């Protein structure tokens, strides 16, 4: 489906405005598992002509094993420490679009890095949507031990007040990934003033 932005003929102007607003800073997607950070992040990166990086994949590459194995072998705290180091390195590099794991923004030092060095976008989704998107997938360690609805509900209660500190908040629904990408781009295009400052 063609995007509303493309149909309106404003896409180039919108994207130019976003790139000006970013001022060379990374664009970082945060949110719970299933919100679409990697999928939408990759699509937005392509639209902005920026590299896309998935923090979880970078962590697995650095560790030489899967995130599930890191959790099992070393525990969550060791994973969070490694995650922080990887994100710090990525935020100090070239401008890019970064998708982070669901717990990254919850850790104070990692959150401070993201808020200080990037523009953060929270992809906010309700419980039913997250449950639908994560159902039947076994690569998410936090959902592998217990009732996924209860676990996700508890994560929403604990994490959403923290995610609310993101620079920009986009509400996800059951729209297609293309429509979601276009919605995110449109929101980003409205989120910077003429001097490139984030409009709160």
Q: What is the beta-strand fraction?
A: 5-15%
**pLDDT < 50 stretches:** 1-10
**Arrangement of strands in the largest sheet:** 2-3-1-4-5
Structural class: alpha/beta
* Overall shape: globular
DSSP summary: helix tally: 10
Largest sheet: 5 strands, parallel
Elements, N to C (H/E) = HHEHEHHHEHEHHEH
Q: Please state the average pLDDT score.
A: 89
What is the rounded distance between the termini? 31 Å
Bin the helical content.
40-55%
Question: How would you characterize the overall build of this protein?
Answer:
The chain has helices at residues 4-8, 11-22, 37-48, 55-63, 67-74, 76-91, 108-117, 127-134, 148-163, 177-189, and strands at 27-30, 51-54, 96-99, 119-124, 168-171. The model is unreliable at 1-10 (pLDDT under 50). It is built from ten helices and five strands. Strands 2-3-1-4-5 form a five-stranded parallel β-sheet, with helices on both faces. 55% of the residues lie in helices and 11% in strands. The chain is of the alpha/beta class. The radius of gyration is 17 Å and the shape is globular. It comes from Thalassospira permensis NBRC 106175. Mg(2+) binds at residue 38. Its EC number is 2.7.1.71. ATP binds at residues 34-39, 140. Its cofactor is Mg(2+).
